[in-house]
Amino acid sequence: MKIIFKYADTYRKAMILALLLMVVELIVELVQPIIMAKIIDEGIVAEDMSIIYFYGAILLAMTLLAFVAGITSSFFAAEVSQGVGHDMRNDMFRRIQMFSAMKIQQFATSTLLTRMTNDVIQVQNLLFAFMRIMLRAPLFIIFGIVMSFTLNIPLALILLATIPVLFVVMFWLMIKGMRLFRHVQERIDQINNVIRENLLAIKLVKAFHRLTFENNRFSKVNKSLKDKNRQALWVMEVVMPIVMLIMNIAMIGLLWFGFIQLETGSARAGEVVGVINYATRMLASFGVFSFLLMNLSRGRASAKRIDDILEQSADDEVIEQRERARIKGEISFDHVSFTYPNTSQEILRNLHFHVKQGEKIGVLGETGSGKTTLLHLIPYLYHPSAGTIYLDGQPIEQLGNQVRYDITLVPQEGFLFSGTILDNITWGNEHLTQEQAEKVAKEAQLHDFIMTLPDTYQTLIGQRGVNLSGGQKQRLSIARALADTPRVLLLDDSTSALDATTESRVLEAIRKRRCTTFIVSQKISSVKDADQIILLEKGSIAGLDTHQQLLQTNTLYQTMWHTQRREGVTLDG
Ligand SMILES: Nc1ncnc2c1ncn2[C@@H]1O[C@H](COP(=O)(O)OP(=O)(O)OP(=O)(O)O)[C@@H](O)[C@H]1O
C-alpha cells in the first residue's frame, strides 16, 4: 500500500482538493438529518410554515453545494488515480527494460503483462474509491453516531452497539479477500499466457488441427479464473447479508424503542426520525464500505505485485549515451562454462578460443548443442557461470552492458516491429539517412524487393511482419543490424530461410565489412568461408579450425559434411 501513496504524493494538491471536497459532501450529509428533524419538530408539528420555508431553503442550498462538491471531488480523484496509473506503468516499463535476460525469464512475460495492465487498473480503482467513498463511509459512520447522540442518547446507544460487530465482520472480509484476490490475479496471468501463445502461434495451431486442444486449454484456465472469482465473490455474498441483518436488527430496535419514547413523550418525532435517518444512511455506508473492502483487498494484492517489479534491482541498467570509445572487436573466451538459471545442466563447457578483430567465425553444431547460448554470452545477455570473456583484452564484466553499443545480434527469429520498412531499418540507428538505409538494404539483398512495393521504403509492415516472407523478414533484420554499424555482428542462423545464392551474396556483403562476425548455422555451406569454425558438440568444442583443416582432421565434421551432401543441403564448393 505504501507504494500507492508514494506515487500519489506527486498529485498531492489534487488529492487534498478531492478529499476536502469529499469532506464538504460529508458535512452536508451529516447535517441534513438534523435540519430535517427541525423541519418536523419546529415546522410540521408546530404548524409553522416560515420555519419549513427557512430550513427547506437551507436544505436545498446544501444539497446543491454537495452536488457541486461531489462532481469536482470526482474530477480531482480521477486526475490523481489516472496520473498514478500512468506513472506506475511508465516506471514498471522502464524497470523491466533494465531487467537482465535471466530476470525476464524468471518473471514470465504473461505476468509482466498482467501486472502492467490489469494490476495497475485495480490500483487506480482502489485509489479513486479511497478518495471518493472509502474514507467517507467510515467517517460518516463515526460522525453519524456522534450526531445521533446530539439528537437522542438512548437511540444513539443502540446504533453504537452494532458498530464493533460490524467491524469484526469487515476485518474478516478484508483478510480473506486479500488472499483470494491474489489468486485471482495469478489466474489472469495464466489466461494472458494462453491467449498470447495461441495468438502468436495461430498458424501453427491451425496447421496442426489443434483448435480443440487449444480451446480446451483456454477453457481450463478460464474455468479456473471463474472458480477463483466465484470464491472471492462468495465472501462478498455472505458478508453483505450479514451486514444487512445486523443493521436491520438495529433498525427494528430503534423503531421499537423510538415508538416507546414517543408514546411516553420522552422524545420528539423529529429526533426519532433524525436518528433513523442516520441509521438508514449508515446502513448504506456499510454496504458500500464492505464492497469497497473487497476492492481494497484486490488493490492491495495488485499493489504488492506491482511493487515486486519496481523493487527489483536494475541489474541491466540502460545507458543512454555512448560513454566510451568504440571497441575493436577482439574476443576471447577463457575456459567459459554456462548454466541457465533454475537448471542444473551445464549447457556450455570449458569454451576456450580467441577471435581477432574483423575475423569471421562460423559456429556449427547440432540442434541444442549451445550455439545460440554462446552468442548470447557475447553481448552480456547472460553471464558465464565460470571462466571469463574478454573483449579487446578487457573482461566483459568490467565493460558491462556498454558492450552492446558495438555488438549487434540478429536473432534466430527475425523480429519486426509494426511500422514502415524504413522504421524497421532505422530502429537499429535512428540517425540513418535514406541513402544509408538503402545502402544497408542493398547489402542485405532486400533493396530490389523493397523497390517493387507500391510505397517502397514507406510500406507498412503488419505487426511482427506478417506480410513478409520468412526470408524477407530475415533480410530486414540483417539490414537493421548493419544499420547499427556494429563492430561485432552476431548472426544466429539468420540466413536459414534464404536460397543459396541470396545467402552467399548477403554473407559476401558482410565479409566486406571489417566487423568481427559470428555466423551460427547448421549448414556447413553457410560457414565454410569463415576464418575459423567452432564445432560444438553438447556444449563443448569438438573442433576449431578452418573448413579445409576440419574436413581433413575432424571426424565429426567429416560426417556432417557427407550427411549434408547426401541430404542435398547446398554445398557449393
Ligand atoms: N532460456 C533457457 N533456459 C533454460 N535452458 C535453455 C534456455 N535456452 C536454451 N536452453 C537449453 O540450452 C541448450 C542449448 O540451447 P541453444 O538454443 O543454445 O542451442 P542451439 O545449438 O542454438 O540450438 P538450435 O540449433 O536448435 O537453435 C538446449 O538444451 C536448451 O534446452
TrEMBL record:
CDD domains in UniProt: ABC_6TM_Tm287_like
Membrane topology: Multi-pass membrane protein
GO cellular component: plasma membrane
Keyword line: ATP-binding, Cell membrane, Membrane, Nucleotide-binding, Transmembrane, Transmembrane helix, Transport
Source domain of life: Bacteria
Cellular localization per UniProt: Cell membrane
Transmembrane segment boundaries: 15-40, 52-76, 126-147, 153-175, 232-258, 278-296
Residue ranges of domain ABC transmembrane type-1 in the record: 16-298
Record's keyword annotation contains Cell membrane: yes
Location (main, coarse): membrane
Coiled-coil segments: none
Any one GO MF annotation of this record: ATP binding
Domain ABC transporter: residue ranges: 331-563
PANTHER family xref list: ATP-BINDING CASSETTE SUB-FAMILY B MEMBER 10, MITOCHONDRIAL, ATP-DEPENDENT PERMEASE MDL1, MITOCHONDRIAL
Protein name: ATP-binding cassette domain-containing protein
